[in-house]
Amino acid sequence: MALSSPRRSALSDQVIAQLRNQITSGEWPVGSRIPTEPELVEQLGVARNTVREAVRALAHNGLLDIRQGSGTYVLATSELAGVMHRRFAGSDPRHVAEVRSTLESSAARLAAERRTERDVRQLETLLARREEAWASGDAERFVTTDATFHHAVVAASHNDVLTGLYADLGDLLRDWLREDVGEVLRPENHMDHGRLVAAIRAGDGDTAAAEAASYPFMCLRSPAQAGG
């Protein structure tokens, strides 16, 4: 008689779906620690074993990272993002920068051709928040606002496949940016993104693509490029 995989209980599936929704909705951001097992048991009203199974399933899929003695942390926002994170976490930073540059340059060109007035207003709002975050000196706040801005540029391309691929790589890119920026925001590392928004607003695809391609990670720039 052939063996068959045991089916996970409907209750466990429901708990997995609820926890996944907390992650994908942003309620539990990447890098944050989720509630403890006893807290989840109380909040969900289910048995400890059900919670444990759900957390392990999401950890296996790459969304959560279980750290003994520390807690469980959000690693990625989707299963594919988790795979991307595990597959490329140890990659050469230059290769990560090249992929980011390629994707964002293509997206910026399309954004200049397809952007709506709503897209432009959102980019201008996010650009202002990015600058405010930089001025605050809060490195983590800057990383978050910068990542949100770049994702909005890609979304303005109105190419669902490109936007989805960038989103799945987003957690990896955010990790590299966080490491690259460090704990202190240095004036010589500031990069002006105003020209990119202006090019998208004007419908200038060539300039938008060139601007997006000119934003390498800070640690890869030569002194002469600082401040670009």
Structure description:
With 228 residues, the chain is mostly helical. It has ten helices and two strands, in the order αααββααααααα. 64% of the residues lie in helices and 4% in strands. It has a two-stranded antiparallel sheet.
SSE layout and pairing:
Elements: H1 10-24, H2 37-44, H3 48-60, E1 64-67, E2 71-74, H4 79-88, H5 93-114, H6 117-136, H7 139-155, H8 160-181, H9 194-202, H10 205-213
Antiparallel strand pairs: 1-2
Helix pairs in contact: 1-3, 4-8, 5-7, 5-8, 5-9, 5-10, 6-7, 6-9, 7-8, 9-10
Total helices: the number is: 10
| Overall 3D form | elongated
Mean pLDDT over the full residue set:
84
- Alpha-beta classification: mainly alpha
Radius of gyration: 20 Å
User: What gap, in angstroms, lies between the N and C termini?
Assistant: 67 Å
The ordered string of helix (H) and strand (E) elements is HHHEEHHHHHHH
Keywords: DNA-binding, Transcription, Transcription regulation
Pfam families: FCD, GntR
Protein name: FadR/GntR family transcriptional regulator
InterPro entries: GntR_C, TF_FadR/GntR_C, Tscrpt_reg_HTH_GntR, WH-like_DNA-bd_sf, WH_DNA-bd_sf
Task: Characterize this entry briefly.
The chain has 228 residues and is mainly alpha-helical.
Keywords:
single chain; 228 residues; mainly alpha; 2 strands; disordered N terminus; disordered C terminus; TF_FadR/GntR_C; transcription; transcription regulation; DNA-binding; Tscrpt_reg_HTH_GntR
